[in-house]
Amino acid sequence: MATRAAELTTSEIVQRALRRKRIDLAGQIFQVLLLLALLISLLFLVVLLFDIVSKAIPTFQERGADVVTGTVSSLPERAGVSQGISGSLFLVAFVVVIAFPLGVGAAIYLEEYAADTRLNRFINTNVRNLAGVPSVVYGLLGLALFVKLFGSFTGGRSVMSAGITMAILVLPIVIITSAEALRAVPNSIREAGYGVGATKWEVIRSHVLPNAAPGILTGTVLSLSRAIGETAPLLMVGAVSGFFAVNAEGLIDRLQSQFTALPVLVYNWSRQPDPGFRQDLVPAAIVVLLVLTLSANAIAILLRNRYDRKW
Amino acid sequence: MTRVTGKPLRLLLLGLVLVLVAAACGGDDDNGDEGGEELSGEILISGSSTVEPISSLNAEKFQSENSGVSISVDGPGSSDGFELFCNGETDISDASRPIAEEEVEICADNGIEFVELKVGIDGITVLTSPENGDVECLDFLDLYALLGPESEGFGNWSDANDLAGEMGAPNTPYPDVPLEVTAPGEESGTYDSFIEIVLEGLAEEREVPEDDIATRPDYTASANDNVIIEGISGSPSSLGWVGYAFFVNNSDVVKALQISNEAEGVDCTEANDETISSGEYPIARDLWIYIKEESFENKPEVEAFVDFYLGEEGFTSVNEVGYVDLAEEDKQITVDNWEAGELGPVISQE
């Protein structure tokens, strides 16, 4: 009796479940929650952007291109961000020249050549840890190493010291993202290369690297954005906070002289007593910084789309 | 597949070249016109972040007339500035306090001689919210009772009544409203000056151990004076202090209290250009520049810059960036000292 009753009940349950109007309440609630999460993060971004841009527009209207071409000044009506832009571009150049080749090279070695030994695993873990070290620590490193120890070569508190510090700061990020991109290349591609008799170098050069390029490019350019936005390490290695004018003869001389950068300008101007700095110039400088960062990201997306490949 | 090879690399290289070119072009903007100026060379200025705007503005004015000179003005703080200065790394050191004896010794050990020049005055204003109608004037004794080392834990103005009464502070009893203090943090020269001018003497009288001579530790500290202004204007019964320039630029959102120091015979005095300049207002500090002898003897650009600094246009900068001009006779003392080239801290030790 008991078993028969149970059988009936089971089939009844199944039948009811199949016939009933299907409202997946939990699922719908979950979907709404996820949408909310997305909207809230977007809302913050939109509010922030709106706030900054609406404050910056009057400055640009009033001063025009003057804001971009002007130099640092104690008077807000004369100050501009040109030295910040050139400083930030110098830092970018250092990151591109130093961090990219070193980082991609290290990633290729770790992924393609290094055997799975305890030492290599240790190195791998350490690279990951380095990526999490607060940026101001890199600033201290830069101060001790490039400003003090190699001061005669870098020119002390110079754009060169800052550039090398920034390159080292983003190096672990470049290594990690490049290594991820290399790992994402299917092994069958490598094996196909070996199958037709290619050497390891040939396989990496003609098969692995082109296929990993989109991922590597995305990672490296994102690390560029990080370098553009950092302030703390630059303060440590001596970004100038007041007025400066440099009469450099040649590139080397310029690299060994004083500098500032866009985020440093934002930081310094927000501390000035004259409200002209913090109410008019800070938003304008932030907008210039945003434009610089967003163009770096846009380049990353364009490059990635150009070389993207489906398997 | 092989056809794509190399293209990403080439593109990366192209991008790299573009960035380098852009950076190099951007760098050119810093160069002044090659107008055949006589002066060239480099002037390095560092030190107090308070004095930095004055030196910056003067550097800017000077540089626009002498575009061949490279100048940089930095503001890590008076102490950091003297460290660099005595190490021979800078030509001019800005300071919001006179050079200390130990610093003179370090300089001497490194063979650095200097001329000391007073260039301006900065008042420290004690602020509250404009909504706080109960308090108009505070004495040094009141400030000690409300902000000094023994005031730790006072959550209400009235909590300080007993201490203030014991000391004989003139403005008791205080209102029974929350005491919300926002003020500079330890790294700031304004913090040091407040302790030195207002609290130190009273703390010594009351035999507070030397290590404990400071403000109360339990307040909202900020290194950014604009944040302090926001904190003070944000609460109806707030209290705090900032440099005079920050008050002048925000006098619509905060109220400056009059200050008295009855022990020294100073009645309630409002902070304004005249009272600070004349020394009537009791919480003011002098702003200094120190010029390395070797620099002004051997580098004509440094000598010319200091001449400019102490000229009419140079002294105007003090006011333009929000500080208070020296009285005429003090200006003359500074100019005379520069012309005589007298070495050592002669003005501050008078």
Kindly state the number of beta strands of chain A. Answer: 1
Main sheet: strands, sense, barrel of chain B: 9 strands, mixed
Tell me the fraction of residues in β-strands of chain A, as a range.
Answer: under 5%
Stretches of chain B where pLDDT falls below 50 for ≥5 residues?
1-6, 25-37
Characterize the structure shown.
The complex is a heterodimer of chains A (311) and B (350). Chain A is mainly α. Chain A has a domain at 73-181 and 230-291. Helices cover 78% and strands 1% of the residues of chain A. Chain A has 14 helices and one strand. In chain A, helix 4 packs parallel to helix 8, helix 9 (187-195) runs antiparallel to helix 10 (200-229) and helix 13 packs antiparallel against helix 14 (275-307). With 350 residues, chain B is α/β, with parallel strands linked by helices. Chain B folds into two domains: 41-121 and 285-340, 3-Layer(aba) Sandwich (D-Maltodextrin-Binding Protein, domain 2), CATH 3.40.190; 123-284, D-Maltodextrin-Binding Protein, domain 2. Chain B contains 14 helices and twelve strands. Chain B has helices spanning 7-28, 52-65, 78-86, 101-109, 140-147, 161-167, 189-205, 225-233, 244-248, 273-278, 293-298, 300-309, 312-320, 328-340, and strands at residues 41-47, 69-73, 92-95, 114-128, 137-139, 180-184, 220-222, 238-243, 255-256, 258-261, 266-269, 284-292. In chain B, the strands form two sheets. In chain B, strands 1, 2, 3, 4, 6, 7, 8, 9 and 12 form a nine-stranded mixed β-sheet that branches. In chain B, helix 2 (52-65) links the parallel strand 1 (41-47) and strand 2 (69-73). In chain B, helix 3 (78-86) packs parallel to helix 4 and helix 5 packs antiparallel against helix 6 (161-167). The longest helix of chain B has 22 residues, at 7-28. Mean pLDDT of chain B is 85; it is low at 1-6 and 25-37. The interface between A and B is large, with 50 and 59 residues. Strand 1 (244-245) of chain A pairs antiparallel with strand 2 (69-73) of chain B.
